[in-house]
């Protein structure tokens, strides 16, 4: 998927082998995504200096809906949609 409102997803591996410095090994799962500079929407609204204007709420909500619609058109659902997982 390639969309301006979604973090780019590069790779996922289940049960990969992680080699520790001491020579031991562990099975791990990992996801590789693009780095995003910014902060979570939760941080933006948890300590507001003043209430959001309706226009700002609409701006962010519209972007969230576009991203979800795009994902759903590919048969993908987020399953953990929350303020901490929305980057500003």
Mean pLDDT over all positions: 91
Please summarize the sheet with the most strands: 2 strands, antiparallel
User: Helix count?
Assistant: 2
Q: Classify the beta-strand content into a percent band.
A: 15-25%
Number of E-state strands:
2
Structure characterization notes:
The chain has two helices and two strands. It has one domain (9-85). It has helices spanning 41-46, 54-73, and strands spanning 9-19, 25-33. The two termini are 20 Å apart. The longest helix has 20 residues, at 54-73. By secondary structure, it is an alpha+beta fold. A two-stranded antiparallel ribbon has the order 1-2. Helices cover 30% and strands 23% of the residues.
List the helices and strands and how they pair.
Blueprint: E1 9-19, E2 25-33, H1 41-46, H2 54-73
Antiparallel strand pairs: 1-2
Concise description?
The protein has 88 residues and is an alpha+beta fold.
Keywords:
88 residues; alpha+beta; two-stranded antiparallel sheet; 2 strands
């Amino acid at each position: 998927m390639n969309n301006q409102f979604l973090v780019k997803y590069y790779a996922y591996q289940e049960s990969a082998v992680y080699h520790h410095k001491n020579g031991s090994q562990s099975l791990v799962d990992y996801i590789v995504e693009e780095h995003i500079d910014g902060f979570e929407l939760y941080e933006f609204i948890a300590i507001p200096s003043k209430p959001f204007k309706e226009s700002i709420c609409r701006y962010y909500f519209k972007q969230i809906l576009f991203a979800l619609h795009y994902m759903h058109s590919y048969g993908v659902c987020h399953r953990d949609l929350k303020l901490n997982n929305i980057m500003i």
